[in-house]
Amino acid sequence: MAKNAAAAQGLERGQKTLAADLRTALGKAGVKLGAAVEFSVSSSGAVEVRGSEADKAAVQRFLKSDTRQPSFASRIATQAQDALKLSSTIQQSAAISQAAQLSKTSGGVVSLYSSLMQSAGTAHVVFSVSAASSSLSFPGSLATKA
Questions:
Q1: CB atoms < 10 A from the CB of 39, how many?
Q2: Most distant CA pair in the chain: distance in Å?
Q3: Which residues contact 93 (CB under 8 A, 6 or more apart)?
Q4: Residue 108 needs a FRET pair 20 to 30 A away by CA distance; which of 32, 45, 65, 89 works?
């Protein structure tokens, strides 16, 4: 549990830093967000942007022209991967705990754990940034906001 808490705190710090850096870079590029913009990563690894048409277009242009190393798209994707790893760990821990509590035999624990993990489904991470705040949400998290 302490390891998960430390990982969650690290994600929160990283999310705050990424959001602040992104807002600063967008401002320098002349991009003013009208509302929150959401970033997610597709199964192919591409960063997807959701928001108003104007905000979405401006942010997509910014990301395409970003030549930093690592790029903001790369930093967003890395953050999503880190959140997915933590989400998976949290789900596994919860499934193990629940299986151990509900099953009376070791074989039952394994069977119930396998069943719980199969029903966990695919996790989805969303990083949201507005002019004044940001958040990172993923399965197993309490939304992290800055």
A1: 25
A2: 62
A3: 1, 4
A4: 89
